[in-house]
Design brief:
single chain, Intracellular septation protein A, 10 helices, UCP010219, 0% strand, mainly alpha
Length: 254
Amino acid sequence: MTANGTDPDKSGPADIRPAPETGPAEQPAQEGEPGIAALAAGYAEKAGLQRNKHGHVDILKSAGGIQGIAESILPGLVFLVAFTITRELALSLVAALAAAALFTVARLVQRRPLTQALAGIAGVAISAWLANTTGKAEDFYVLGFYTNAAYIAGLLLSIVLKWPIAGLLFGFVRNEGLEWRKDPERLRAYNIATWVVIGVLALRLVVQLPLYLQGEAGLAALATMRLIMGAPLYILGLWVAWLLSRPAGRGPAK
């Protein structure tokens, strides 16, 4: 989970806004809320987290929807397939960039916000540059290690500072505002939820780094794990974090 509510292996925010929640649990942030509160409100709004008709977080939309997930998966998949068939690094990198560019064109045609697609193509471009510079195909995936490590550090810091990221996201989706920080049990629940996300990111590093260190011999397995442990694992982790952090005694809608 990133500062824009997306999977760190993805490169842009979801284009969904949180849906309002009704009921006695509503505690909207007060007007004029200064500093961190206002920042947190905007942070949660841009996260793309939304409740479905059953009262749960809509994890598919939170991951960017079908198109957003495709934008995060296909460029890497195209690169792997192209390199496996041709063994030509430059050609495979161009194919991956072309796949990312197609999503930008698609969003232009759909007149949808370009933020996610542009961030995605920028991420693919950086990955392509790294692989082309070193001449190692496996370096196409190395950027993900740095972003995962950076997010782990940020999430850990948020727990230490008693501003767990899960609370900033889920708290505003649930209309708790920042009131959850005054309740030790709610703070603890959001700490646990944030640890779940840290666990997802750490597991990626534990599994994928050894494959990366195998060089080209581990490329196929690395790419496969990147796909499996990308959006699917992120969605699962987000769902578990949501369930673990729901307020007690407020019914299944939380």
